[in-house]
Amino acid sequence: MKKHLPFILIFCFLAAYRFSLIDRGAMAIPDEMQYWEAGDALEKLIFDRDLRGGFSHLGGKTSLYGSTDKPGHITLRLVPMALQGAVWKLSGGVQERDPQTGMVKGGIHFRNPDFMKIPLGFNALLSLALLLVFYKITVLLFGAGPVAAVAALIYGLLANSNIYVRHILPYDPGLLFFMLALYQALKRREEQGGWPSFKTCICAGLITGYAFTVYPGYYVMPVLILSVLLLGPNRPVVSGLQIGRALAFGLSSLAVMSFYEISARIGGLTYFGNLLNLSQTQHGSFEEGFSYLPKYMAAVESFNGLFLMIFSASFFALFLLRRLGVPKTAAPATAPVFPWIAWIALAGFVFHAVRTLQGHWVFYGRVLHMYMPFMVWTALAAMLSLPWERMRRILVYGAAPVLSVLCFVSFAWSYQQVAYPMDVLYKLGINTGLVPPHRLVYESRPYIQFMSPPPRNFETGEPYTAEKDYTLVNFCFFYLLEGLDYKPYAPPPDAKLVYSGLHYNMYPAYIYEGGTMHERELLKRRNYRVSVYKHRTG
Fold first, then answer.
1. Given this model, what pLDDT does residue 66 score?
2. Cα(29)–Cα(70) distance, rounded to whole angstroms?
């Protein structure tokens, strides 16, 4: 217990911070709409007793809400959705539908911002579970002690580790289950003398298969997990038993995916068929195969990102120098399997970068999310490889954690200043249904227009008022800005500024989730803000 105390303190601090993030941000990104598939599935299966309709939503029935390439994510989201349903029922919700709107009557509306804290709280729990698994893997690789605690601190404080808590997206849960499979493979390998049992391979395969259905973008992880299962004491071994282990892993993963294929078929869809579309060209910068990473780390993670990236690259350079017999490059005290894991992660990154340059897959912050644990591990390993003990201690226990804390403080402060349109409307009690259409202003053509979310109380309309003399500027989601004009809003003399905040599209972590290099530059130059003006005359 004592040797894990530093991590426990770090975990408690990050738990408090991440639960503080759930006050806003839900449904600000279009991909989050897939969450409503979980609600529609529950409604069809429980209220309407419609098996086919329920399974069609579990597969991601509509193009608006999502697609059938992430059915595991929809299944996972049944947990907070069921909790919302229970609270809705206790708040007076009834199953009868309003004949005009077709929506169920009474109770708290599922899309009310206060009610959305339930799935966001679930997000926080998932992110903390990911941090815990990361720490457990670090202990297996580096041993229990201060190095593992430093690794958890660095990883937990990254902007990339915290940015997805506010949004109902599959990136944290997908990585969580992949990391669980990796942890299980590493731990059992250690316990079973380097030769994992078939039971271990099947268990790892089942977890990996489910993780892939949650988010298939982390396609390198199955290769990495399988390699851990097939490694001998120091290197891969080819034998009949190893082929059997590979088949056990692959078939168990396929079994999970086949379950979702059957479920999709019941709903009139096909999961495997939709997976074939994953390699289609996506919107983004195909010129940034290898340059995306340093740009992202500099813009989103600041000096800490560049520090980690430099030392992570140094790990591979030092490894090669040791192989060439260069003196004073001793290997750090890590598990023998660690270099193999690191090189596979690097190979996956290089493969994706090459595919980007070929015009197939682009990099986003969510894609780099998978590589962040490996970057932290390799960066620490590089620091521990240095021949000077005093320098090692200064870097590992001084420079690295201090820089992480300083950059985290800067991130946490700036992230609190971000404005999400629907949350601003809800906080100010502005009902967009009453605001004249000509006073809904967008400085560029919007991709999605945000209206006021449902009230806390339908009978009283709380917290909304009857005020309508507002001009609302940039209450929208900006995307695909190429070729769009920019028309800054100039308020009339009778307008009083009530609120102004940085549009969340402008925040670096969001800027690097899509768009071309030129579009990112447009966002930075235009610096859109979410603004509310109150008019003295009607």
1. 43
2. 16
Question: Which of 133-137, 163-167, 273-277, 425-429 is predicted least confidently?
Answer: 273-277
Report residue 447 as tokens: 């991709």
CA–centroid distance for 314 within its chain: 27
DSSP 338-386: HHHHHHHHHHHHHHHHHHHHTTS----HHHHTTTHHHHHHHHHHHHHHS
**How many other β-carbons are positioned within 10 Å of the β-carbon of residue 489?**
14
CA–centroid distance for 432 within its chain? 30
Count of CB atoms situated within 10 Å of the CB of 524: 12
Q: What is the pTM of this model?
A: 0.93
Convert 85-120 to b/e letters by CB count within 10 Å (16 or more is b): beebeeeebeeeeeeeeeebebbbbbebbebbbbbb
What are 163-222's pLDDT values in tens digits?
A: 999 999 999 999 999 999 999 999 987 776 667 888 999 999 999 999 999 999 999 999
Three-state secondary-structure class, residue 496:
strand
CB 451 within 8 A of CB 433: yes
Q: Alpha-carbon dihedral of residues 296, 362, 174, 83, nearest 10 degrees?
A: 90
What span, in angstroms and rounded, lies between the C-alpha atoms of 161 and 400? Answer: 17
Q: Minimal CA–CA distance to 371: which of 421, 411, 313, 417? A: 313
